[in-house]
Amino acid sequence: MPDIGNLFKKYKQFLFYLLALLVLGWGFTPYKTIFLGLILGTTVSFINLWLLYKKTIKFSEAVKYGKKIYSIGTLSRFAYAALAILIAMKFPNYFNIIATVIGLLASVGVVFAEFFIMFITKRSQEER
């Protein structure tokens, strides 16, 4: 099982590359509102992933030392997502709301992609 810190580094790197591609798309294509929505959603998605990472570290420390922890920050992550949607709704000339929602799912897509890659590489190593 990979260390959560190493996994977060991979996720962070991939999301930064994705954001760089989205900024290039915003700069060089006529679809400004779509790419700004994707940038907004992906940025909030990255912030939510970072918050989950930090809360998971605190949770594992609490379990390790026998302390209690009551939440892993689900409400705050929902609030960030709702804030992104509200921003997109408030400024429809700048942000596409559907693209913002798709961007909010970026970190989930990255996690699934990494899981799929790890599954395929582990399976190919077992066959050898």
Automatic annotation (TrEMBL):
<feature type="transmembrane region" description="Helical">
    <location>
        <begin position="74"/>
        <end position="91"/>
    </location>
</feature>
<dbReference type="Pfam" id="PF03899">
    <property type="entry name" value="ATP-synt_I"/>
</dbReference>
<keyword id="KW-0472">Membrane</keyword>
<dbReference type="InterPro" id="IPR005598">
    <property type="entry name" value="ATP_synth_I"/>
</dbReference>
<keyword id="KW-1133">Transmembrane helix</keyword>
<protein>
    <submittedName>
        <fullName>ATP synthase subunit I</fullName>
    </submittedName>
</protein>
<feature type="transmembrane region" description="Helical">
    <location>
        <begin position="34"/>
        <end position="53"/>
    </location>
</feature>
<feature type="transmembrane region" description="Helical">
    <location>
        <begin position="97"/>
        <end position="120"/>
    </location>
</feature>
<keyword id="KW-1003">Cell membrane</keyword>
<feature type="transmembrane region" description="Helical">
    <location>
        <begin position="12"/>
        <end position="28"/>
    </location>
</feature>
<keyword id="KW-0812">Transmembrane</keyword>
<dbReference type="InterPro" id="IPR039072">
    <property type="entry name" value="ATP_synth_I_Bacilli"/>
</dbReference>
